[in-house]
Amino acid sequence: MTDKTQKKSLTILGSTGSIGRNTLDVVARFPDRYQVHALAAHSNVELLARQVEAFRPAVAAVYDPEAAQRLRERKPRGGRTAILTGMEGLVEAATAPEVHHVVAGIVGAVGLQPAYAAVAAGKEVSIANKEVMVLAGELMVNRARESGARLLPMDSEHNAVFQCLNGAAPEQVRRIVLTASGGPFRDLPLRRFPAITKEQALKHPNWSMGPKITIDSATMLNKGLEVIEARWLFGLPPERIGVLMHRQSIVHSLVEFVDGSVIAQLGLPDMRTPIACCLAHPQRLPLELPRLDLAEIGKLEFEEISQDRYPGFFLALEALRLGGGMPAALNGANEAVVAAYLDDAFPFTEIAAILKRVMDQLAAVPLAEGAPPFLRHVATVDDAVRADQFGRGLAAALIEQARGTPC
Ligand code: MG
């Protein structure tokens, strides 16, 4: 089995989510190049069991202990996979010595600790879960510098920037511009926003993604979080990160260099392309996917981001401006608010309204003196988690007030 040692060995954190499923789709096309060491999921036992049977990993980690027990009882065929659980299980999957590359695709704050552990262990880490960089971007980048870990941006926009940069140093870059599709409500008259239904909010016009990120696209808080992610991944100050609305989702992002050249990355909206780019870096995988036909698309349009339509975007920029643990706090608040929204607690417009009140409260915290230290500076993973929890706490009271607002 000499060829096996030459395969890249992968851990996929979040294998049952949208990124994980797409990653396994790419892996299945190149069985001679990749092998799966570990799959990690939150609680979707049925899908994880089928993935274990198809990819035969050495390890399956299930965050939820009861779900881990169900997986053991389900006895996936093949039978050689060790089943781990809890945060220790996720961390063990992310740091095993035989693993070369870790895909950090666990949505939300739960994904932070295993991603950080992978970075500390010096792995090549694809960042597909933007919360990791929103909660602890500075910490991640500094730790990667110390350990020699390589961070690869897997989010479509950041992967586009990464490709356009092609290794250029920050001083050669005037600015980067992330694109935003505008989500499902880009043309809906503002007066009709109060009547938006959950089904409408969950229907993204261009991308097929999980429910949380689809709602974040509709409020465009997602794009604000992506600016925060870009700030750390590319080491650029916020004023050199722009965003343009681009409804076709063909140009995934652009880089303007100091000599006036603007380089863009284009492609059909399919996550398998940025995933393949990260897995194979610096090589390219010959992926047979539908091809971009620009003549058929005809024209590419760009617009400024509307303040009235997308308040979530500007709230995230405000959190970045405040700095320290504020982005983590906003992220925690948003996770709580979106979960409540998906649970039919209140209408769509309340999401941004509640988050605005959270940001007003955060902005009133005197960062210089008296503030909790984790809000002033995120020095550890625990600080990031505490800041996230602080935001959830602020949101919880406001969610209760909003509950019962007729949907
Ligand atoms: Mg994105």
What does this 3D model show about the protein?
By secondary structure, the protein is α/β, with parallel strands linked by helices. Among the domains are: 8-153, NAD(P)-binding Rossmann-like Domain (Rossmann fold), CATH 3.40.50; 183-219 and 306-402, RNA polymerase sigma factor, region 2, helix turn helix motif (Rna Polymerase Sigma Factor, Chain: A, Orthogonal Bundle), CATH 1.10.1740.10. It contains 17 helices and eleven strands. It has helices at 18-29, 45-55, 65-74, 86-95, 112-120, 130-147, 156-165, 198-201, 211-219, 221-233, 272-280, 294-297, 311-322, 326-342, 349-363, 373-376, 381-402; strands at residues 8-13, 34-41, 59-62, 82-85, 101-104, 124-127, 150-153, 173-180, 241-245, 251-257, 262-266. Strands 4-3-2-1-5-6-7 form a seven-stranded parallel sheet, sandwiched between helices. A four-stranded mixed sheet has the order 9-8-10-11, covered by helices on one side. A hairpin with a 4-residue loop joins strand 10 and strand 11 (262-266). Helix 4 packs parallel to helix 5, helix 5 (112-120) runs parallel beside helix 6 (130-147) and helix 14 runs antiparallel to helix 15 (349-363). The longest helix has 22 residues, at 381-402. The chain is globular and about 55 Å long. It starts with 7 loop residues before the first strand and ends in a 5-residue tail after the last helix. Magnesium ion binds next to helix 7.
